[in-house]
Amino acid sequence: MSNSTEQQEFTITVYTENQIGILNRIAIIFSRRKINIESLNVSPSEIEHIHRFNILITETEEVVRKLARQIEKQVEVLKVYYNTNEDIIWQELALYKVPTETIVEKVVVERLLRENGARAVVIRKDYTVFETTGHRQETDNLIKVLQPYGLIEFVRSARVAIIKDSEGFNSKLREFERMEPGQEVIENEFLDQPKNVFTM
Amino acid sequence: MDTQEEALAVAEPKQTTRVSGSVALLEGLIAEGTETIFGYPGGAIMPIYDAIYDYKEKLNHILVRHEQGATHAAQGFARTSGKVGVVFATSGPGATNLVTGLADAQIDSTPLVCITGQVFAHLLGTDAFQETDVINITTPVTKWNYQVTDANEIPAALAKAFYIARSGRPGPVLIDITKNAQIQLFDYEGYEPCNHIRSYRPKPIVRKTYIEQAAALINEAKKPFILFGQGVLLGNAEQEFKAFVEKSGIPAAWTILGAGAIPTDHPLNVGMLGMHGNYGPNVQTNSCDVLIAIGMRFDDRVTGRLDKYATQAKVIHLDIDPAEIDKNVKADVPVWGDCKETLPLLTNLINEKTHDSWLAEFKAFEKIEEEELIRHELEPASGEITMGEVINQLNILTKGEAVIVSDVGQHQMVACRYGKLNTTRLSVTSGGLGTMGFGLPAAIGAKIGAPHRQVIAVIGDGGFQMTLQELGTIMQFGVNVKILILNNQFLGMVRQWQQLFNDKRYSFVDITSPDFVKLAESYYISGQKVTARETLVQALETMLNHDGSYLLEVMVSKEHNVFPMVPQGCSVSEIRLK
What we know:
The complex is a heterodimer of chains A (200) and B (578). Chain A contains seven helices and nine strands; from the N terminus they run βαββαββααββαββαα. By secondary structure, chain A is α+β, with helices and mostly antiparallel strands. Chain A has a domain at 89-160: ACT-like. Chain A, domain 2 (Alpha-Beta Plaits, 2-Layer Sandwich), CATH 3.30.70. In chain A, a hairpin with a 3-residue loop joins β6 and β7. In chain B, α3 links the parallel β2 and β3 (60-63). The mean pLDDT of chain B is 96. The A-B interface holds A 16-17, 20-21, 24-25, 28, 32, 65-66, 69-70, 72-73, 75-78, 179-183, 185-187, 190-191, 194, 197-200 and B 135-136, 139-140, 143-147, 153, 156-157, 160, 164, 194, 196-201, 204-207, 321-323, 325-327, 334, 336-337.
């Protein structure tokens, strides 16, 4: 990992209980230090009742490490990881609404869409919705491309990220283990036994 | 698994009783060992207050005069008793009045369970009468909070609240209960205490490697230095700590909240750390070779300028809260865990030692401080009464056995610097938040938490006027606290800074006071005012011997400064004696 005092993009992955208010509890850990959350995705994880957050910020590693610990100490947070862009595979999903007319009439648009890996999701007489996934530059690029052809509406999702070291989830834990005492034991032991533990 | 299934198959349906949410709450509090509640009723918490009417035998409810007072009283109770403080307040303004106390308890790791009433669930979000979004207002100042909208949730929510408040690094917890849930009848299965939450690890698992590394550093150290904080008290690890200090022979200095973890007179207790701490501990921080921080969090008032703080030393940091490791000062060896467990492990591995010449250096600094400063503070031959001499005379009379509750400001620094503590849990003060007005209500709770001890609230003329309404609580419940007002007719600490750093531009620090003795009298509390040195001791004796609460106002030197001082932005070794 590069210099810990240099600002760069970090993707923070947080596993939490599915509890009202936890989003606020996590958000204020950033806002109290006046750190902007650039993108935020919260959705159910592969484990029932456990949600996964992906939080994107630009900060130094030193600060991110402190943030991660302050997040992890929240009662309803199970585990926090932070990663640089090199450590993860990430995607953002974008939707573009374009007048169907222009696509039908202008061959160039069809070519551009194909070049940019866009897929049609809905085709109606009046408009067509395309979808693309990629990094920020790629989804941005398609906006620029479609703008002259009457882009009606655009929306982009937050970043979702897989930690490359996916088989290394355990090795990651061991790495943390050196820094933090054996959280993995307690965590993984109970993750799939909700009936044995307190849930609200 | 089989046995579990069998157990389930033969299990009788649980005995239930039909009770209201309010009754379930009170039953839960009793099951948790609660005896005293500090509270104030109001519309949205009326069903709970109606229920408590029938629980007067089992639950002692102290009606405070302001909800902030309830939180501070609960803090005082928690600090002297080691138990969880319990607070009741109504919705809206009742709940918002808790915020200062919650913030204070959060930063000083004090276990509280606060119950607030809330408007009916169907009115949430409608700007109903006395509705505030208490959960979101209190999120930053609570360890955990939860809104209950159904009576069925109450037993489990309360159990979780107590467990979270008192386990790990303690802290305040708030449960907001909508009025319908308080009224609602449900099938109550009895109270089950909580002892596990899967997403919550109160105590990090102790790592042997770190204990070994720490022991190796300590054994090789020539000039080791221990800094201890409230973590020792919170972990009930005073004995373990004493054993560690005595075997290692290492000089130990305390943070304001760590005071009393070992007695003031212990030969290895070298004094207080920080901005107004003792001379030696501050200077020696920058000359030790191994710094052993135990249950403390390197607050900026302790460290002074961080980039010049103990840069020469290897740092061993023992803390239960992983988020404190490396937060302010980078640890070379992070010993994560409850110090009740880690200290004995460490004590086992260290060599029995003395550090005579190193300790002598501390004594030399102590002598300088004593001669240049302390002597004049504690035993001034002439001139106006000093705060230090009042505390000194108090020490002589109480022999270090009394609880000293202090407010915030100059008198607090003096009370903490000079207050004699023979044992643990005798000092109650607002450390991290610096809440003026903390003292009087905290003393009420401190007395209830330590009923057999003399409790003295040392308060300034400014702080006293922030929460003096609690004299009403003292009056009504006959709480035997001794109120010692050190009146310098100024907001002294701010005045001191204005004198030292703002060219004596005394901006709004000149505070006038009512006749405190007459004020106390109107609450049927006896008192007197002392202006001359000759009458001080007699007056203190009268106060201490008085049967019941008493207010003693002592007029002290108006423009006296607290020294030593580490000026802001300076390194701890740049501490000034004048």
